[in-house]
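Comment thread on ticket #2218

A.B. wrote:
> Attaching the input chain for the structure job we discussed in standup.
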Amino acid sequence: MASNTLRFLQAIAPIVLLARLAQASAQPQRQPSQLLPPGVARPGCRDRCGNITIPYPFGIGAGCYREEYGFELLCDDARSPPRLTISGGYQLASLSLSAGEVRIYLNATRKCYNVTTGAFVDRNDDASLALGSASPYRVSPTKTRLVATGCPTIGYFVDGAGYFVSGCTSVCRPAQYAVEGQGPCTGVGCCQSAIPSDIYYYEPNTLSLQLQAGKLDPILGANVTTCQYVFLADADWFSYTDSVFFNRTDDFAAPVVFDWAVRNVGNCSAAKLNMTDYACRSRDSECVPSSNGAGYRCNCSQGYEGNPYLDGGCRDIDECLRPDEYQCYGNCTNLPGHYICKCRPGTDGDPRQRNGCRPKDKFTPALKVVTASGCSCQCSCASGSTWGYRRGSSSERSRGSSSRTGASSCSSRCAPTPAPAPAQAGSRYSPRRSWRRRPTASPPTVSSAAAGTASSTGASSRTRRWWPSRGPR
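C.D. wrote:
> Ran it. Output below, let me know if you need it in another format.
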């Protein structure tokens, strides 16, 4: 009988093992692939050009971009590296879906003169920008500056009607009279100017400060450069240094930050009136009004990430897989759109701080012992309790002197404070005198335990204790 049972168990063991392996593989597990960002382009569409990711509503090729002027991109794979451009042939340096920004390279306007005669020598005016009001792009007023370099010059730009929009003046001092601590690009050799909002047309120019007969005013012509430049630039990219820009004579392009938005309607309210053309397609997305000109953008709702311009493009963030980013170092529970963070059982504190959860306090609320420096200790009681030396044996009394000097640990204990007894007729008891000393000589003076000596009223004085009174006698 036993042998039959053994043979049966040996026969079914592989079946049980396979069943358990199948059950384990069927359980959902967090794989690293789930941490990858969701699809950014439309299915079947190209999502990269060189090292630049192309998220929808931008795209390359028919059906891959939002059917609206400005969202179609072109990739020139014949170049190395491949070059991505927007409408008008402007080179795209980077594109951000969440920030609503692109960086585009624009050429600098250059004019060069003969420093002796002031005669014009050479120029490069291929730096204008004409996108049109229907374009999704606007020059960023917060991250872009108009810059002019060279001396002496006024750098400025005009709008589509030919009127002045923004500009600044750059003048140089003689080298021997250079100002110590002169800030970067503050008017000496370089100047910069802010950009107003809703700029989609830009025509730069420089105005020479040359006077009659090719002569310059001594104040303006103290230190003349061969070439003068005016250009738009990302404020974080541009850092003026004499060695780079002061005597420059070549052509260059600078990255310029643009804000982009869907601009077929003026705002979110107008966009939601036509849900067929509404750009925010994901269920877990929200509309954000444009901060630079008319229009709107889309963002994933809080707790979600991805592409809000695609159906199902916003996906829940599993904050528990990113403890450093979302600050949870306890027990983390992921929920749709948010998460719960608690200290582990048996601990309490702040689970959103590293080592913020500590084991729960196991001391009774009546007694807390705080260790001090040296070998002495202090005892304190919670509200509603009192403490005192407990009445010890004769051997303990003989060690009283060392106890008072801190050579031993606290031998006290806390007890509930008794309610004061009512005063009886003819009694001299008072609650304020509930602690009285027995008649004795003056109490001994206790020295620090760290000093290693126990002082008293005299070397041969008898050690005395202080005892709580027993109340009225």
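A.B. wrote:
> Thanks. Noting for the ticket: The chain has a mean pLDDT of 76.
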